[in-house]
Amino acid sequence: MARKPFFDTLRDVRAGAVIDDLAEKFQELVLAVETTGKGGSLTLKLEVKPFKGTSEGAVVVTDRLDLKKPCIETSGTVLFATPEGNLQRNHPRQESLPGITLAGDAGAARATI
Predict the structure, then answer these.
(1) Which residues fall within 8 angstroms of residue 41, CB to CB, at 6 or more apart?
(2) What is the pLDDT of residues 55-103, one digit of tens each?
(3) How many domains are contained in the chain?
(4) CA 100, CA 108: separation in Å to the nearest integer?
(5) How far is Cα 30 from Cα 69, in angstroms, rounded to an integer?
(6) What is the pLDDT of residue 39?
(7) Over 60: is that where the pLDDT of 108 sits?
(8) What domain range is 61 assigned to?
(9) Distance CA 113, CA 99 (A)
(10) Please, are residues 30 and 39 in contact by the beta-carbon 8 Å criterion?
(11) SS3 9
(12) Which pLDDT band holds residue 105 (cuts at 50, 70, 90)?
């Protein structure tokens, strides 16, 4: 008996939707690798079980895609805790100096002009 090419069988799983999902997830992975400069992985797991209630050789094939995209690392943000337990950008016990604003605080910069 000739062996059926695996890709032909894969086209039968979920009527070919698994191939579309693989292509979509693979594209996500490639874009994430390009963005971060780090590696990731895409795993296809196929599980084959006997189809319950029949003895005619029927099986159920289930698929699972596991995408591990690389993460973008950030340097974090320094915030200060208030006595009430909130966080804020300015130190709660330090007075503001007139004309001095935090970088990126466009609203405060306009107010001093």
Answers:
(1) 29, 66, 67, 68
(2) 788 999 999 999 999 998 888 899 888 888 888 888 767 777 777 776 7
(3) 2
(4) 9
(5) 9
(6) 96
(7) no
(8) 6-68
(9) 9
(10) no
(11) helix
(12) low
Give the whole-angstrom CA distance, residue 11 versus residue 99.
66
Residue 112 resides in a domain: yes
C-alpha distance from residue 79 to each of 91, 101, 108 (Å): 8, 15, 18
Same domain, 59 and 87: no
According to DSSP, the β-strands at 59-68 and 80-81 are unpaired
**Within this chain, do residues 29 and 44 fall inside the same structural domain, yes or no?**
yes
Over the stretch 24-52, which tens digit does the pLDDT of each residue have?
A: 999 999 999 999 999 999 999 999 999 98
Dihedrals φ, ψ of 110, to 5°? -65, -35
Residues composing the chain: 113
- Asked whether residue 1 is domain-assigned, the answer is no
What is the Cα–Cα distance from 70 to 40, expressed in whole angstroms?
5
Q: Say which residue, 8 or 90, is predicted with more confidence.
A: 8
Query: Looking at this protein, which amino acid is placed at residue 42?
Result: L
Q: Are residues 62 and 112 in the same domain?
A: no
The pTM (predicted TM-score) of the whole model is 0.63
Would you state the structure tokens that stand for residue 95, as one six-digit string? 């007075």
